[in-house]
Automatic annotation (TrEMBL):
Transmembrane segments: 28-47, 84-99, 106-126, 138-157
Keywords tagged on the record: Membrane, Transmembrane, Transmembrane helix
The EC number(s) this enzyme carries: 2.7.7.65
Keyword Transmembrane: yes
Domain spans labelled GGDEF: 212-344
Organism listed in the record: Oceanospirillum linum
Gene Ontology molecular function terms on file: diguanylate cyclase activity
Gene Ontology BP term (one): cell adhesion involved in single-species biofilm formation
Cofactor dependency: Mg(2+)
One annotated Gene Ontology cellular component of this protein: plasma membrane
Cited Pfam families: GGDEF (PF00990)
Protein name: diguanylate cyclase
Length: 348
């Protein structure tokens, strides 16, 4: 927009020359406007080469407005007859500030405009090129009034924009938190049952034809009721959180860990056949067995029973989960603190 406005300004000066409103040698015009355009083009170039990112305000609003104020002042100096047109351009410069500037910026740019305008008017008066002094004073007074008015409106628009931006950022943050809460379990930060089902449906869609494999590990902490009964519910919660951390560390970034509820958890191991899943499950079982739980009495270990199964093409998610459930049940029956894979189950 700034570059476009610069084009209009240059066109107005060129037109004034064509209409003989300004007597200026063509070479002088070219030299002056080449310099002005080198300045104008600096900004888009800086932005396209990311040099603007080195500055506190990467939009370079204040430097751009200062530069355009300066070039507009040169135009007034060259074509005093069209000063009223250029005065409007000053106001447009201030309005541009509404996109990014805050109060301080409006003071800087407004102050600079006043300085430039006063200087060029004085030069015109001294050289006799300006309007009659009464007429000029009236124009100047009205221009200052307009400049202050437009600056106030610009500040208002700008503060509305900043408030809106802040509100949007807050809304986005709240939405992000709400989305996260909808899919995670409050206590452990793991995925909740609802999201687990969504994950499994997605995995099922990938594995339905049989080229892609994934496995499930159902985990149930052993004798967890005793922990609650002996140390209290809060200690039980801490054990669940410790388990969640251990489980997260046992799987890869691409895998999923969810809490089904109570002391039951599920690991979804993507692109992993049964053998690989058994290795992960054993690593998890061992880590839990060796975990130091400072909140419990010395030597009190909390172990896990794990059922491992691989998704079989074309079966439903419920069938896979049922098989994993039977495997955990079997691990419990065999004495707990162990894993059972679906290979070891009869009829499955
Ligand atoms: N601290 C805590 N306890 C929970 C939570 N959810 C469920 N529990 C408790 O977990 C215990 C589960 O007990 P059971 O289902 O009998 O299982 P268990 O004692 O682990 O026995 P086995 O599974 O047979 O080894 C119950 O006492 C529940 O109250 C929770 O969020 N925090």
């Amino acid at each position: 927009m700034a570059t476009g406005s610069g084009l209009v300004l240059t066109a107005v000066v060129l037109l004034s020359m064509a209409l003989d409103l300004v007597q200026m040698p063509m070479a002088y015009f070219f030299l002056l406007y080449t310099m002005i355009w080198l300045g104008n083009l600096c900004f888009p170039l800086m932005i396209s080469y990311d040099i603007n990112l080195l500055f506190k305000d990467p939009s370079l609003t204040i430097p751009q407005l200062i530069w355009h104020t300066f070039t507009n002042t040169i135009s007034i100096y060259l074509v005093p007859e069209l000063q009223n047109v250029f005065l409007m351009y000053y106001l447009l410069v201030v309005l541009f500030g509404a996109f990014r500037m805050q109060k301080r910026g409006f003071f800087i740019v407004g102050g600079f405009i006043l300085l430039c305008y006063t200087t060029v008017m004085l030069v015109h008066q001294l050289s006799g090129a300006g309007a009659e002094i009464k007429e000029q004073s009236l124009i100047s007074l009205f221009f200052i009034f307009m400049l202050v008015g437009v600056s106030i409106i610009g500040t208002e628009i700008s503060s509305l924009r900043w408030a809106l931006k802040k509100r949007n950022a807050e809304m986005n943050e709240v939405m992000k938190q709400a989305k996260e809460q909808a899919i995670t379990d409050d206590l452990t930060g793991l995925y909740n049952r609802r999201h687990l089902m969504a994950i499994l449906r997605h995995q099922q869609a990938l594995a339905y034809r049989g080229e892609y494999v994934f496995s499930l590990c159902f985990v149930d902490l052993d004798h967890f009721k005793q922990v609650n009964d002996r140390y209290g519910h809060k200690a039980g919660d801490e054990v669940l959180q410790t388990f969640a951390d251990i489980a997260r560390n046992c799987v890869r970034e691409v895998d999923f860990v969810a809490r089904l509820g109570g002391e039951e958890f599920v690991l979804v191991l993507v692109q992993t056949p049964l053998e690989g899943a058994c290795l992960v499950a054993e690593r998890l079982r061992l880590s839990m067995e060796q975990a130091r739980l400072d909140i419990l009495a010395p030597g009190h270990r909390v172990t896990a029973s794990i059922g491992v199964t691989q998704y079989r093409p074309k079966e439903s998610i419920e069938e896979t989960m049922h098989r994993a459930d039977i495997a955990v049940y079997s691990a419990k029956n065999r004495g707990r603190n162990q894993l059972v894979s679906d290979h070891e189950l009869e009829h499955y």
